[in-house]
Specification:
It is built from 13 helices and 15 strands. It is α/β, with parallel strands linked by helices and 407 residues long. A hairpin with a 2-residue loop joins strand 12 and strand 13.
Length: 407
């Protein structure tokens, strides 16, 4: 029996074309329509239609720039209007909230950070209040906000429902729906590490990579798989939970309810606890890094131990997926200098060295701001009509997720 031909979704194609043109112009900073045709591979008529629509929507500025030594009409140069509205990115942690406002092109305009109250309802109120304070600080009203993106340390379903956040203590919270009730702008919500991976693709070291793996550490340890030019989510939206790979069978208790997970050794809380057990009191990844920089043997010993555990997981991931790049992100970058050598050694060992040796290992330049930038990336995709939770017209699984698909 022949399978029915899958119908092409014209609305999705238009959205993809808009995203391609927008991102090409964002990366170029300034371009003519001809240059956008060359950069995107789209035909001139399609690029012209997209540019016309973006100009009508007030996203672009156009100017005539005469070129020296050439006669005739000067070409029109296009740029993204920095005053066309704001994107807001948020990082929600168990004990803190970080916010970043940027232009439509992702250029920082202002930031805000503060405490967050416990429980979903109280945390949502904290988030709304924080965004309002941020907007007050930058002098923009709600009518100037184009979209908001939120990165959360939790398992997030395709539809923006928080399934389980062990470090938050939350289960089954329709988070995106609740935020959408409070904010009359497009809202995207995703796992914090997936958001960080999207930021790395849009703005960071993985801009030119179609296949990379990101491992981030904050209150927990998360992973994101960006493969084949798209962010992989799996059947339920939970793919990439590297932090819950068992590295020590029957080992330290993890917040997920299992024992011996990578997160139970490499998260901020876990590292601090292991040093405390050895008589060294520090605060956070930054404190661990400071102790190691001062030559404290306990800090160096613990980092060596967790570096070996991380390297074992990283080698297996690289053997399985063959990515171009492995990115360490989030607050974990504080201790990255003490982890990278072990990772590089593991990826150069004889077993599958030909495969592993092709994988570049880097630390994100965003550091602790990776998730906040990820929120901006989610907001950017939302305002383009391509949020991570976008589903097909039949309400099924997403047919496109994350930036990069079809660029």
């Amino acid at each position: 029996m022949r399978r029915p031909r899958q119908r092409l979704n014209p609305a999705l194609v238009r959205r993809l074309n808009v995203a391609r043109v927008f991102h090409a112009l964002r990366l170029a900073g300034e371009a003519s329509q001809g240059e956008l045709v060359e950069a995107t591979g789209l035909d001139p008529a399609t690029v012209s239609a997209v540019v016309r629509q973006l100009r009508q929507d007030g996203w672009l500025l156009a100017s005539k720039v005469p070129r020296a030594g050439r006669s005739g009409r000067p070409p029109t140069r296009l740029t993204i209007d920095r005053d066309a509205g704001l994107l807001v990115g948020a990082r929600l942690e168990p004990d803190a909230l970080q916010l970043l406002a940027t232009s439509l092109a992702g250029e920082p305009v202002g930031s805000w950070q503060g405490p967050v109250d416990e429980g979903p309802d109280a945390a949502i109120d904290s988030l709304r209040g924080g965004v309002e304070e941020l907007l007050h600080d930058v002098g923009v009203g709600w009518d100037g906000v184009r979209a908001i993106g939120v990165g959360v340390p939790a398992l997030m379903a395709h539809d923006g429902r928080l399934a389980f956040g062990p470090n938050l203590g939350w289960r089954d919270v329709p988070l995106r729906a609740r935020l959408a009730e409070r904010w009359r702008v497009p809202v995207a919500v995703d796992n914090d590490t997936k958001a960080a991976a999207l930021a790395e693709k849009l703005f960071g070291a993985a801009r030119d990579a179609d296949d990379f793996v990101l491992i981030a550490g904050h209150s927990g340890v998360g992973g994101a798989l960006y493969l084949g030019g798209r962010l992989q989510r799996g059947a339920g939206g939970y793919a990439g939970e590297i932090g819950h790979v068992t590295v020590v069978p029957g080992g330290r208790a993890c917040g997920c309810g299992d024992r011996g997970c990578l997160e139970a050794y490499l998260s901020e809380k876990a590292l601090v606890a292991q040093l405390g057990e050895r008589g060294l009191a520090v605060r956070g990844y930054a404190g661990v890094a400071a102790a190691a920089a001062a030559g404290d043997p306990r800090a160096l010993e613990v980092l060596d131990e967790v570096g070996a555990l991380l390297s074992r997981v990283a080698a297996d991931v690289v053997d399985l997926l063959d990515p171009e790049m492995l990115v360490l992100a989030g607050s974990l970058t504080h201790v990255a200098p003490y982890l990278l050598p072990a990772l590089e050694r593991a990826l150069s060992e004889p077993a599958l060295a030909g495969v592993r040796g092709r994988c570049e290992v880097v630390a994100s330049r965003f550091g602790p701001e990776a998730v906040t930038m990820g929120g901006v990336a989610l907001a950017m995709e939302a305002v383009l009509g391509l949020p991570a939770w976008w589903a097909d017209e039949g309400g099924g699984r997403p047919t496109w997720a994350g930036a990069g698909s079809g660029w």
